[in-house]
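hey can u check if this looks right to u? its 408 residues, i copy pasted from the old doc so theres a chance i mangled smth
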Amino acid sequence: MAALHLEELIGDRYLECIQNYLIHLRDLYPHPNRLLFYDDVVVVYLLAFFNPMLRSLRCIEDASQLPGINCFLNVESVCRSTLSEANALFDPKHLEGLIAHLRKDLPNLKQMDRQLAQLLEHVRVFDGSYFRVAANVAWALHQSKPNGKPMGQVRLNCQYCMATGCPQGVTLSGDDGTGEGAAAEAMIKDDDQVECIYLFDSGVVKFSFLNAILNKQCHFLCNLREHIGFDVERENSLSDADRQAGVLSDRVGRLTSSHAPRGADAAPKVMLREIRVAYTDRLGKSRQLRLFTDLLHLPAHLIAELYRYRWQIELFFRWLKVHANFRHLTSHSSNGIMLSFYIATIAMMLTCLHTQSSLSKYGYNLLAMVAAGLADLEDILPILQRRERERQRERQRQAAKRAEKKRA
């Protein structure tokens, strides 16, 4: 069996970049008795990410003693108790510089019409998803499993950048009472980009969130529930392209509020569009989306198509939980859980850089085989490219099938 080479898994170019950051990390948190440094933690977690078997601190401790992994570490063994203490101590924000650097090198993987591609360059998608933690994590959200046993969960709040196909920012919520709307609003304030388009569903919507986006000279596109009032001032005519996209109506007006709040909590005063789109749910039932946006001049069918990309963040969460085995988190501290997500983000970027394709279970599984010493990088790339071509043909076939169904 071939030996594991970090250069194969991460790549010579990216290994050099990571090594520069690892040198910086080693100088953090100095202590005369310290044996496990920040750079060792990052390396062992990166290697564990690509090995589905290493999903507990004990397994990582065992694996760290193997020659193929230990040669990249500066300790004889990564003791699980020491790693647990490092999870609570090492601030994950020290990895943001590396994430920003890798993000610049990510390829543009979109193949679509030019106008939509230009819009997606500015799109940020926000959503949250729950991950399990140990039941005795005090700050987590607690509930019972169907069998009556206690279960702890935390919510990962994620802002996903469509231009790179990777997270732009993440925060963590437990029993702090922070809802998705408040978490999203905090990310808006920290985002240094202008002219962004924020996509989110009705569970995130707060009037203060919408106002924060507009005050930053950015745009939003969201789904709103029926109980939120809307005063219609005019109705736009629909084109053939709009009707083919399932658009039922395109109206312009203003949001209203039943309890008339003031300040940031008041309904936005600007003119907005309400676009209703017909779709069929997974059970085969006819449904309607009620979309709202301040983008007044884009064609309605393009607005409908743009909102479909909100599901990319759902696919990201699914990829993280199912294919990258992040259903259950081992750390008990919020700092350690955030550290795990930051390193997962770095690993995902390295996956995209290696394969020159978007995230998929196929890319992750093949790179896991490289990590296991079963193949070299040059062995897996032709396989992955062939698989991606098959997926592209299947997407085109499904798109043609949907178009034919609409015409009928």
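The chain has 16 helices and ten strands.
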